Amino acid sequence: MSDDVAPDQAGSDQPASRHTAAQREIEEGIERDFTRNLSYGEYLELGKVLSAQHPRSVPTRHDEMLFIIQHQTSELWLKLMLHELQSARELIRKDDPRPALKRLARVKHIQVTLTEQWSVLATLTPSEYAEFRSFLATGSGFQSWQYRAVEFILGNKNAEMLRVFEHDPAVHAELSGLLGEPSLYDEVLAWLSRQGYAVPAELLDRDWSRPHLENDALTDLFGQIYAAPHDHWGVYELCEELIDVEDNFQFWRFRHLKTVERIIGSKRGTGGSSGVPFLRRALDLTFFPELYAVRSRIQDVEPEGYHHD
Ligand code: HEM
Fold first, then answer.
1. Count of domains for the chain
2. How far is CA 236 from CA 13, 157, 173, 224, 244, in A?
């Protein structure tokens, strides 16, 4: 049988298939010579990225690779999240909230990805983790500076966290900077004020290194906005976007907690905390307290034709 005759034409009893093939032809135009041209791996510096996984267990335990990659990919997504949040904050500072909404939309998808990702780690059983846990010594996600940076930019300011990073002056300086800057929420409030909304003055000029505390007058202001969303659509939309981000942040915290619980139960953390009880207390934290408070003030709309006695 000649090489260029299809099997079915040659009388083979194999049925012709137009949708499956054992091999795909590599098109002529596809670049193959990277002696001079920029390649994929070079652009992405994959040499560095893919040689940064070093299990510490001796002898090497199979499951430590999962543990390392789960953390490293989380850190990469946190890096992008920080990049987007910083830009969103800057855009709001410059009175340009529409592209900021686009940034926040991306942040929300990153958060969903990070939360979904817990299901990969959940395949790690307690016995598998116990095989290499002692090799982590005192290392813990608690020391993730990018996570703290994201928390700071969203408004969960806590100067005590800086102590953990004193051993690393560059990171310490970066986090101290973020601690002393207005958060995304602070910038939203300043923008609202510039739009003519009566934001309480004490929220517009304060010690930014301290967390924002719930303010009743601000909840009153949001009450007016939420009572007539169509009259304040831009503000209303941005507020709901912030709620989405906080919701997603809490989903991540919750999945972390439940994954930790199924892997270490009630053991203490490698970072020295009580473990699950400590993580559970983070579920009470809020970045945007008034945006939650306003929800209890919204009046139900009565059905048409309904009259009180
Ligand atoms: C087997 C897997 C994991 C276990 C058992 C675990 C356990 C813990 C525990 C017990 C804490 C509290 C601090 C401590 O005492 O260590 C903690 C904090 C933390 N972990 Fe994990 N973790 C795991 C995976 C991860 C992953 C994959 C990330 C992704 C970056 C992560 C990020 C964090 C962060 C950001 C904190 C600080 C949370 C806060 O301050 O509320 N953890 N972890």
1. 1
2. 67, 25, 35, 10, 12
Question: Looking at residue 120, what is its pLDDT?
Answer: 98
**CATH code at 165?**
1.20.58.480
Q: Is the CB of 279 under 6 A from ligand 1?
A: yes
pLDDT digits (tens, 9 = 90+) for 225-279: 999 999 999 999 999 999 999 999 999 999 999 999 999 999 999 999 999 999 9
* Residue type, position 39, single letter: S
Residue 27 within a domain: no
In a domain, 47, yes or no: no
| Alpha helices (H) along the chain | 40-43, 46-49, 64-93, 97-116, 118-121, 126-130, 145-154, 169-180, 184-194, 216-227, 233-264, 276-281, 289-293
- pTM over 0.90, yes/no: yes
Find the 260 Cα to ligand 1 centroid distance in Å.
7
Q: What angle is formed at CA 277 by the lines to CA 272 and CA 281, rounded to 5 degrees?
A: 105
Q: Structural domain of residue 238, as residue ranges?
A: 60-291
User: Whole-angstrom Cα distance, residue 88 to residue 138?
Assistant: 35
Ligand 1 proximity of 273 Cβ (cutoff 6 Å): yes
Average pLDDT over residues 192-213: 97
Q: Indicate the length of the chain as a whole number.
A: 309
Give the residue among 132, 152, 147, 178 at the shortest CA–CA distance from 256. Answer: 147
Upstream peptide bond of 15 is cis (omega within 30 degrees of 0): no
> 176 lies in a domain?
yes
Residue with tokens 């009893």: 13
Pocket test for ligand 1, best of 119, 136, 138, 142 (most atoms within 8 A of CB): 142
Q: Give distance in angstroms: CA of 265 to centre of ligand 1.
A: 13
For 166-180, the pLDDT digits (tens) are: 999 999 999 999 999
Q: Does 113 reside within a domain?
A: yes
